[in-house]
Write a structure and sequence with these properties.
Layout: E1 27-30, E2 37-40, E3 50-59, E4 68-75, E5 78-84, E6 91-97, E7 100-107, E8 118-125, E9 130-135, E10 138-139, E11 142-146, E12 161-163, E13 175-184, E14 194-196, E15 203-205, E16 217-219, E17 239-241, E18 248-249, E19 269-272, E20 277-280, E21 287-290, E22 295-296, E23 302-313, E24 319-325, E25 340-345, E26 349-352, E27 355-358, E28 368-374, E29 379-384, E30 387-393, E31 402-409, E32 415-422, E33 456-462, E34 468-471, E35 479-484, E36 492-496, E37 503-504, E38 514-515, E39 524-526, E40 529-532, H1 536-539, E41 544-550, E42 557-559, E43 566-571, E44 576-582, E45 588-591, E46 600-605, E47 613-616, E48 626-629, E49 637-638, H2 640-643, E50 652-655, H3 659-662, E51 667-673, E52 680-686, E53 695-697, E54 700-709, E55 716-720, E56 733-734, E57 747-750, E58 753-756, H4 761-764, E59 769-779
Antiparallel strand pairs: 1-13, 1-18, 2-12, 2-17, 3-8, 3-13, 4-5, 4-12, 5-6, 6-7, 7-11, 8-9, 9-10, 13-16, 14-15, 19-20, 21-31, 22-31, 23-28, 23-32, 24-25, 24-31, 25-26, 26-27, 28-29, 29-30, 33-41, 34-40, 35-36, 35-41, 37-38, 39-40, 42-43, 43-44, 44-51, 45-50, 46-47, 46-51, 47-48, 48-49, ...
Length: about 775
């Protein structure tokens, strides 16, 4: 294997916390199937009541049986462990001493995102009968089954300690660990090991600068020949079992690499070895796994990955690898689908945009196949064991697509597996072509909006019944959407800068605009939020509320791009504008002030009690002919009077004679959005009817997701990262309803998208079609998991 050194094919640009520029070089991969772990027996006891464990964790498998992160004991009656609960992947601290339970405490958060890194800090202070758990810098609310007892627990005793397995055997951890610190004798907080990056607003690592105590240790995993070396100065080294130098990875919290995505799981295949090995479950149907990192075509670039072919059983010629789009189903054959951008199969054929033809040499078990895609120049090249099979041109790339590396098997009743897929977290076997980059966070383009919370934010508050200011938004919002969470009769209230803060619309009602005046609801937009009166509908005493806040362009300006002159407040970088106009009652165009055609337009007649209408670019194959109703559960309907059967352009959207969008002399308001890479996404998915629902790639960790079924009647479901501040994001409000918050139909918000975990028709009916709108908490380049 050629040792290229990571700097040969990728630029290291660490996510510097608070301007500190701290970079982590390595992680260690633990594979459950290998029974991999580290072990150490202290020579003398340390402080058994007070200690801190800190580490960065990236999950491989998500369904192991109670995998142990850190464990010690002599028998079942004397043990202390940090583990993950099988069904939910919540963290559990469990301690039994002398046959008596001395602490059983769980987090409420489910850690089941394998696309990013989690920072975990577990801090014990038994003398104060407290345990503290931090995830990505946030102290967690804990569910206590048995409180911490003021006794000597087993961690720091003189029995064998394990990282990655149960103290006896089994229950192995599957995933990656990096930057592991153990502090003997101090109960510390997350701030000792991480900080907020001043530029991105994200939680990032920083160097621990304190002391370690007698049994403290620091595992950097820097030496592939001595993976358990303690570099704290204590030389409290750990012994690796079933771990090798090939388990030392370049995938770290400061440069997150792609793996294959276990949340987009084919029916007849499994992942292992840190989600880098794909295997069939035995002579079944076609399948493909895709990368956790997507590459937007409109951002160009040159990228490379390699895969080593595993076993071939039966007469398979269509086990292959290459690139697919986000529309490719994990159970679909890539050799016959136009969603396959380019692929090279073991029988020697290629597929380009769903068209098969002869290409190169056949390949078989242990052959290394490399795929280099040049998105900028619309070409690709495959290599067998370092030998080019020829350049493929004219891939027919669509500027709106996102590409994913994939491996798969595309013939029924035969097996084909991949023994290793390498996106650059290991040294490449063969020297990459000049200029091609690994699939990792450092090599992704800088997002247009680095800190998403400067353009969109979610705040929650509890009402007081008295005038007050809501702060913490982070900017002066131009559009604020408020909904009561606890009162079952609270309407949605929408305020924007174009209409003025004292004018109210309700998304769940047809009502015309209400003029609040001095005794209304919402006196002003402020520099860090907004002000409220004591009105009980937006500020009722002890009631709870959520406010979704967008930044547009401030005071409206006149726009003459359309046949109707509009007043527009536009945030071009964020792809959002607020458009006010007066209807003409005849076909017309209206300037929206953005640089691209809107993907979603929400329109309300301000003067007339009439429906809210919605355009969405993924609503059927001809969305300009369709209309959705925001205040209704109705399925999409064909209606040429709404959008004049004309798709919006980069400067205008079209209306016809509908009362909702163009009533003569009535004032209307339109909220216009288009996708911005790393910040917002407007797309669609098809349900599978399973609790293991579809995974939707957005390219960012969502702060807000709204979902609507389009082929049948159902709700507009609203989820966000503030309710609750952990997964599952199961607290749901309905844009079309006044009801209180519901705790059903969960989704998970991940570092790169969202995962549907419900079988409810509103989210995931088998074969049902759904549209969504999503806004970022952080772009994937900078995001940790949630």
């Amino acid at each position: 294997m050629i040792d290229l050194g990571i700097n040969l094919f990728q630029e290291i640009a660490a996510l510097g916390g608070g301007g500190g520029g701290y970079s982590i070089s390595n992680s260690l991969r633990f594979n459950n199937d290998d029974s991999a772990y580290l072990t150490r027996t202290p020579a003398s006891a340390g402080n058994r009541k007070t200690w801190t464990w800190s580490g960065w964790v990236k999950f491989g498998g998500l369904s192991e049986t109670f995998p142990r992160l850190f464990s010690t004991g002599t028998d079942a009656n004397n043990r202390t462990e940090i583990l993950f609960i099988t069904s939910t992947n919540q963290i559990r601290f469990l301690s039994t001493v002398g046959g008596v339970s001395r602490g059983v405490i769980d987090t409420n958060a489910s850690l089941r995102d394998a696309s990013g890194w989690y920072h975990l800090v577990i801090s014990l202070n038994a003398s104060a009968t407290t345990l503290s758990v931090y995830i990505n810098g946030v102290q967690q609310t804990l569910a206590v089954t048995t409180a911490i007892a003021n006794v000597d627990h087993m961690i720091n005793a003189t029995n064998a300690h394990n990282i990655g397995r149960y103290f006896g055997s089994g229950n192995h951890f599957d995933g990656y660990l990096s930057e592991v610190n153990f502090i003997d004798g101090q109960a510390l907080t997350a701030d000792d090991f991480g900080e907020i990056n001043a530029t991105t607003g994200e939680w990032v690592p920083k160097a621990y600068e304190g002391t370690y105590g007698t049994n403290g240790f620091y595992l950097e995993f820097k030496d592939g020949a001595a993976l358990g070396d303690d570099t704290s100065g204590n030389t409290n080294d750990w012994t690796p079992t079933n771990l090798a130098s090939t388990d030392q990875m370049l995938d770290t919290p400061t440069n997150n690499f792609s793996t294959l995505n276990p949340l987009r799981k084919p029916t007849y295949a499994t992942l292992s070895d840190g989600n880098l090995v794909a295997t069939t479950t035995g002579s079944q149907n076609v399948w493909n796994f895709a990368s956790t990192i997507g590459l937007p075509v409109n951002q160009g670039g040159k990228f490379i990955f390699e895969a080593t072919l595993g076993t071939l059983e039966g007469a398979t010629t269509l086990t292959g690898m290459g690139f697919i789009t986000q529309d490719q189903s994990p159970n679909s054959a890539t050799h016959s689908s136009s969603d396959c951008v380019v692929a090279y199969f073991c029988g020697g054929s290629k597929t380009v945009a769903g068209v098969n033809s002869a290409y190169g040499a056949t390949y078989t078990t242990n052959d290394v196949i490399t795929c280099a895609i040049d998105i900028t120049n619309d070409s690709a090249e495959f290599f067998k064991n370092g030998v080019s099979q020829g350049t493929i041109t004219s891939l027919g790339l669509n500027s709106s697509d996102t590409l994913f590396a994939f491996v798969g098997n595309n013939q029924s009743s035969v097996d084909g597996s991949w023994s290793l897929v390498n996106f650059g977290q290991l040294d490449f076997t063969y020297t990459p072509p000049a200029g091609f980059l690994a699939l990792c966070a450092d090599n992704l383009p800088e997002p247009t909006i680095v800190d998403s919370e400067t353009q969109f934010n979610v705040v929650t508050y509890t009402g007081t019944g008295s005038p007050r200011s809501i702060t913490g938004v982070g900017f002066e919002p131009d559009f604020v959407w408020i909904k009561g969470r606890s009162d079952p009769a609270d309407y949605h209230f929408l305020f924007d800068v174009v209409r003025g803060p004292d004018k109210v619309l309700k998304s769940n009602a047809t009502d015309a605009e209400y003029f609040g005046g001095g005794t209304g609801y919402f006196p002003s937009f402020d520099s860090d939020g907004f002000s409220l009166t004591g009105n009980g509908l937006v500020n009722g005493n002890t009631n709870t509320y959520v406010a979704w806040c967008w930044k547009a362009g401030g005071t409206a300006v006149t726009n003459t791009d359309g046949s109707i002159t509009s007043q527009v407040s536009a945030n071009v970088d964020a792809g959002f504008s607020i458009v006010g106009y007066t209807g003409t009652g005849a076909a017309a165009t209206i300037g929206h002030g953005l640089s691209s055609a809107p993907d979603m337009i929400i329109v309300k007649n301000r003067d007339y009690a009439v429906l809210w209408v919605v355009y969405h670019s993924s609503n059927t194959s001809a969305p300009e002919t369709e209309a959705l109703i925001l205040n209704s559960t109705d399925a999409t309907v064909d209606n040429n009077t709404v959008w004049n059967d004309t798709a919006p352009t980069s400067s205008v959207f079209s209306v016809e004679t509908s009362l909702a969008t163009n009533q003569l002399n009535d004032k209307h308001i339109a909220y216009c959005f288009h996708s911005v890479e790393g910040f917002s996404k407007f797309g669609s998915y098809v349900g599978n009817g399973s609790a293991d629902g579809p995974f939707v790639y957005t390219g960012f960790r969502p702060a807000f997701v709204m979902i609507k079924r389009t082929d049948s009647s159902d709700e507009w479901a609203m989820h966000d990262s503030a309710r609750p501040s952990y997964n599952p994001a199961n607290l749901r409000l309905l844009a079309n309803g006044s009801g209180a918050e519901l705790s059903t139909q969960p989704i998970d918000l991940t570092a790169n998208g969202f995962k549907v975990r419900s079988t409810a028709p509103s989210h995931n009916a088998s074969g049902g079609t759904y549209i969504y709108m999503a806004f970022a908490e952080a772009p994937f380049k900078n995001a940790v998991a949630r």
